[in-house]
Amino acid sequence: MTRTQVVIVGAGPSGLLLSQLLDREGIATIVLERQAQRYVEARIRAGLLEQGTVDLLIEAGVGERLQRECLVHDGFEMAFEGRVHRIDLKGLAGKQVTIYGQTEIQKDLGDARLAAGSDLRYEASNVAIHDFGGARPRVTFIHQGRPQELECDFVAGCDGYHGVCRASVPADAVRTYERVYPFGWLGIIANVRPVAHELVYANHERGFALCSMRSSGRVRYYVQCPLEDKVEDWSDDRFWDELARRLPAEHATRIQTGPSVEKSIAPLRSFVAEPMRFGRLLLAGDAAHIVPPTGAKGLNLAVSDVFYLHEALRDFYRERAERPLEEYSGRCLRRIWKAERFSWWMTQQLHRFPGDAFAARMQETELQYLFESVAAQTSLAENYVGLPLEYSHDSRRTHAAA
Ligand code: APR
Ligand code: PHB
Fold first, then answer.
1. Distance from the CA of 311 to the center of ligand 2, in angstroms?
2. In the chain, what's the furthest Cα-to-Cα distance?
3. Measured from the CA of 101, which atom of ligand 2 is nearest?
4. Which of 1, 129, 162, 208 has its CA 20 to 30 A from that of 219?
5. pLDDT (tens digit per residue) in 349-369
6. What pLDDT band is residue 225 in, cutting at 50, 70 and 90?
């Protein structure tokens, strides 16, 4: 049987970043991933990074291409009832946000792990975790046709919402909270010029629309759609037509159309599992929580979990400290719930929820108030750029100073 210090289940952004950070602390990891590498690297996901996420990626040694290719934005626009309002992130919250696709981060992390000669096993099937209530957890799986077993000190569950780790915890040890929204997002990627320099969020009577981007020549656009819709229902022409109807005229006239290079429909969900630690099993990222994409918090939250987790494991191996491990779940969840609240709020304000007249008036009033109140905009901006991380006792910075 092979021994390692930490077995990481899942090679998404959470698993690879954790492996990268632990490696830099001299902690050995083996990463087990169900899918093939090319599948993991082709998945299209979010693309908006908080400054704290960028800082950590740079610190982890995977920020070189990011810094070269990213776009930095000082604000974004919101459109409602014919008005376009700019949220001045930099002016209101003193921070910017960075556009760089999660697909690119996945590749950068994969390349860095490969260059470091890490033990990363793609296409590992039947992963099962055992004995994480004690000091010697084991992980069994099948790789290259052979049944295998690993013994470790810790299992990091970085295996996403549908993963095996959270599902292995006894049902009465975990509490879950969930909200499913009654619509989805149809998203496309096209190699055309963005409608505006910054992101544009629109709340229109036909539904939500978002104009985001991956670079100055590649756009990521979304429209709210019924959950029952299929990608085949949406020709490119229908998508461009619908987007134009939902955007204010000044942006609609600037839409450059072109063939979509990706098109998919994603449901919207809020989900949190508590706690995130079960003995020697620690969950991080989508394995423990999902946010609707409206606030672009999914990847940023995964990164903050991984930051806390690497600190807790580092302190354990350096000083046999148990306290950071005990505090891991609480530290993560305080930040997660605030991001859940913000993502829910953004979703609530920007989409059309049919059939609730009172809720519609509340939404209208909320957006009017937002456009008129610097205090309300400051609150939005503070959350959008990312709330500060809590730093541990031995970090140079403190929460208050961050
Ligand atoms: N065995 C091995 N690997 C597994 C298993 C399993 N049983 N189940 C799932 N996995 C793998 C998945 O194939 C996937 O590659 O775990 C990985 C989880 O990756 P993500 O779903 O990307 O989750 P995470 O790394 O936490 O990243 C969070 O991704 O979904 C976005 O919005 C989210 O941006 C956020 C980020
Ligand atoms: C994206 O670029 O995919 C994106 C950006 C901002 C959001 C959501 C998604 O709020």
1. 29
2. 65
3. 2
4. 162
5. 999 998 889 999 999 999 999
6. very high
Ligand 1 and 121: CB distance under 6 A: no
Ligand nearest to the Cα of 298, by number? 1
pLDDT > 70? residue 232:
yes
Report whether 392 contacts 315 (CB < 8 A). yes
Strand partners, 200: 77, 211
Pocket lining: 14 vs ligand 1, CB cutoff 6 Å = yes
Whole-angstrom distance, CA of residue 309 vs CA of residue 281? 11
C-beta pairs of 231-239 under 8 Å, 24+ apart in sequence: 231/186, 231/263, 231/264, 231/265, 234/186, 234/263, 236/188, 236/260, 236/263, 239/186, 239/188, 239/263
What whole-number distance in Å separates Cα of residue 65 and Cα of residue 52?
A: 17
Q: Whose CA is nearest to atom 33 of ligand 1?
A: 298
pLDDT digits (tens, 9 = 90+) for 52-81: 999 999 999 999 999 999 999 999 999 999
Cα 330–49–83 angle (5° rounding)? Answer: 110
**Closest listed ligand to the CA of 121:** 1
- What is the predicted pLDDT for the residue at 401? 39
Supply the pLDDT for residue 297: 98
Is 0.90 surpassed by the pTM of this model? yes
Ligand 1 centroid distance, CA of 139 (Å) = 18
Give the atom of ligand 2 at the shortest distance from the alpha carbon of 212: 2
